[in-house]
């Protein structure tokens, strides 16, 4: 790897002149600049970016932090990376597997200036712990967190959930089963609210009083399907919090010879590519634009030029897993 | 952000002592070290990693470069990130959208020491261009590239393709249609070889003499399905190069009222989660272990301690898209 001294020697100028030419600071004559550029080209020299970053205090690198990395996350990451690249930023990905220490290590990179900002997708630590990192760089999330320090590209799942329930009702479903992710999640709370309010307004009894939490893994869905198979009066629709959970539910219902949609309809959430492939009814809200917005929001805080946020809204996509 | 001077002031020692304590270089008395550590804690100081990296010439950061970022890529990235994390490395993701310049920008980070190594998944530039970067850090790929400078976690698709064709033959298929990705890809060449050799050995005429290349996007598969719908003698099996392509083919055949598997069977490739959800027959070769191996191979070259490579082999997974 050639050094500034090597370039100075080849160009026949002082190292200080090379440094001024490379860093565009101070006067360098046109003739000297040309000689330096030729030497740089000949020696295939690239400035050590870590030295530049040390000087400017910015790394032009954004982090995405998530406990896991699945298709739902993927749909947000692609537009995020694209948006970051347009603004001259790279993107580093951190998968924490839900380990608190591993998540804090990623956030520590804000302190050590290796990250300029973080988009937090699924978290492991509590909000209080994560909030303290906002001293060192902007953090953006998609959760409805009551924090003035962590802005969000959050969309209220209450409305999306109501949309799915109203549609199921309109096509004649009366035994509506809703399944959920983590009970602590604020989206889960809003979905529980929507389910309760919907039944109150209709003056109709909920199909099951026990909510099904933590639905997502193979095992959780196997348990759900076993429970459904054992019920005399099966749910005539299952509304879900994610397309990946819904896809697995459809696949496992069919494997258990429970007819989808004739015995039990299924409605997904997120409108991921898999819902199209499996011809699955789902709720769309522009998940890709949500990823794009997350990046724009970080750039707003980094005082870079940035585009306005894209408005998000819910839309029901009717496909073959509802009658 | 506190500086070394701030710590020195609070600890009542010289800046040089603080520097020696932080960098574990040179003598520092136990009493001074304790005072420094207390000051670091009180001031919430984190050393600027870019300064450390400047000193050591390593960034402990690996890059993954790909033209696109889909479920197939996802299956390799997760184990890669996991393996990298165990060895103390972070992972930065570069999606190039097939733009040559954007890919070269990612590779330039090897020169500027922001990346220690690169795992190249789908490339935009020719091998000759990319090979020149191996001067600056190890590059690993999964393609069968004839380069001694770029090692590979390549698995020969010929064998996997033969496995799919033999199985289709055994269950009575005689009109075998194979579809491909990019014609320039070396995997495609091996798949064409397998298709030709198979038919020669069986003494059987290929179903179609025109190979279907570039199968993957919605549009390409719409064209394929239209062509199939227009054929009097439809293929009784479609063998593919990827589960994502196969999933879209199954979905679109069914939408066109072509019965899968009774009219046309479909065999995927990669054994991704989607093949399980869609109950799709596919070819497995340990795609996750391939991602893990890519990281281990980079670590071997970086002279870090690293685990041995995991052997990969093909296995047919029989599911519901074949009779």
TrEMBL record, chains A, B:
Residue ranges of coiled coil: none
Domain of life the protein comes from: Bacteria
Pfam entry (one): Peripla_BP_3
Name assigned to this protein: LacI family DNA-binding transcriptional regulator
A GO molecular function held by the record: DNA binding
Keywords on record: DNA-binding, Transcription, Transcription regulation
Domain HTH lacI-type: 2-56
PROSITE patterns, per database record: HTH_LACI_1 (PS00356), HTH_LACI_2 (PS50932)
